[in-house]
Amino acid sequence: MENDNSPLEEEIKLSDTLHEHHGFKADPGQSPLRVDKFLMSRVENVTRNKIQQAAKAGSIFVNEKEVKSNYKVKGGDQVKVLFAHPPYESLLVPEDIALDVVFEDDALVVVNKPAGLVVHPGHGNYSGTLLNGLLYHFDQLPKNSNERPGLVHRIDKDTSGLLVVAKTEKAMTNLAKQFFDKSSERNYLALVWGDIKEDEGKIEGAIGRHPKNRLQMTVFEDNSQGKEARTHFKVIERFGYVTLIECKLETGRTHQIRAHLKFIGHTLFNDARYGGDKILKGTSFTKYKQFVENCFTLLPRQALHAQTLGFIHPSSGEKMSFKTKLPDDFKAALEKWRQYAQHKNL
Questions:
Q1: Segment 42-52, tens digit of pLDDT
Q2: Taking Cα atoms as reference points, which of 76, 78, 26, 83 lies closest to residue 54?
Q3: Residue 207 neighbours by CB distance under 10 Å
Q4: Where in the chain do CATH 3.30.2350.10 domains reside?
């Protein structure tokens, strides 16, 4: 069998030492569901056939016992996919990937990540990530609590913008504490569907995994089902059917801005995972539909950019602040909406 770099497609012979590639705990209210379907809704970029191959290889375990693909997962079950080799994302290899370095000194480096670049290896993305590039350009980066060298925080693959990377143990500890204590400053520019009524506001709501689509995050009224999260927003420019806003993170949850904006009915423009790649506001005219499709082509990803980043320097104690320009794809889509809004109002 050819190796396509997918752990669920390889033929595995179990050994005494097994490595966990995926692990999930079924929610208490989980109704009985085949384990292959359960894993499909939780593992990104995987097919049912690959999961069934893993089951045939004896690599799927529930509550530490090997199961077949037709096993019915129940509430509280611990489901794991175990293989005899380490996860590919753990095999970090330096790669000569160009980095847009905004600032660098002995303690840290600030990079401007382009959209489309994954921050660290994970299932389906085992190479070609920002972390592979960092390992090539910088020696002996300190590991964070997840064993990922240099990384203090992350942004999604299709979000562009600023990241700070620690180059020393002291910097890693200090910066990680600033992010944990919510004392760092992170502002994003976002283009969202709809005309937001308020000029500014705050979105509050605990964020956790969506109970049905585990690749999404969702907002819960009950904090026990998610982690508390707060996002502040301010309107920058209105275009009628879409609005440009600035978002300031008070907390830093997975997909926080994306989930919070969907929660208030203003999904990010062209955010495919959260339904923003469809026309959510506007007219039924064919010309309008074509206009939006053209905008999607110009900006083929969610309209989210990590524009500013601020923190206290771990060595000097100086307040550091960085700002980066909007990338060309975002600017092009904005200009089209600006022209459309002006024409519409004539």
A1: 887 677 888 88
A2: 83
A3: 23
A4: 90-180, 185-314+327-344
User: pLDDT of 115-158, one tens digit each?
Assistant: 999 998 876 677 899 999 999 999 899 998 888 899 999 999 99
Is the CATH number 3.30.2350.10 carried by domain 90-180? yes
pTM, two decimal places: 0.76
> Encoding tokens for residue 296?
């999607």
Query: Is residue 43 within 8 Å of 22, Cβ to Cβ?
Result: yes
Of 179, 125, 137, nearest in space to 154 by CA: 179
What single string gives the DSSP state of each residue in 161-225? Answer: EEEEEE-SHHHHHHHHHHHHTT-SEEEEEEEEES--SSSEEEEE-EEEE-SS-TTSEEEESSGGG
Q: Which of 16, 27, 139, 156 is catalytic?
A: 156
Question: 19-86 belongs to which CATH class?
Answer: alpha beta
Using the structure block, give the residue that is written with the tokens 């208490």.
28
| 185-314+327-344: CATH class | alpha beta
Tokens of 36: 């292959």
DSSP structure class, residue 262 = H
- Backbone conformation region of residue 133, classed left if phi is above 0, alpha if psi is from -120 to 50, else beta: alpha
In the chain, the percentage of residues whose pLDDT exceeds 70 is: 90
Name the burial class of residue 307, with classes exposed (0-12), middle (13-18) and buried (19+) by CB atoms within 10 angstroms of its CB: buried
Residue ranges matching CATH 3.10.290.10 in the chain: 19-86
Active site residue 156: yes
| Cα 271 to Cα 149, 156, 338, distances in angstroms | 29, 12, 20
Alpha helix ranges (H) inside the chain? 35-40, 48-56, 130-137, 169-180, 256-263, 286-298, 328-344
